[in-house]
Amino acid sequence: MKVVSVNVGRPVDVTWRGAPVRTGIWKEAVSGRVAVRRHNLEGDGQADLTVHGGRDKAVYAYALGHYDYWRAALRLAELPYGAFGENLTLDDFSEDAVRIGDQYLAGTARLLVTQPRLPCHKLGVRFGRADMPDRFLASGRTGFYMAVLEEGTVEAGDDVRLLGREPAAVTIAEATRLYAGRDPDPALLRRALDVPALPEGWRARFRKRLEKADSRD
Question: Of 22, 62, 128, 135, which sits most exposed with the smallest number of CB within 10 A?
Answer without folding.
Answer: 128
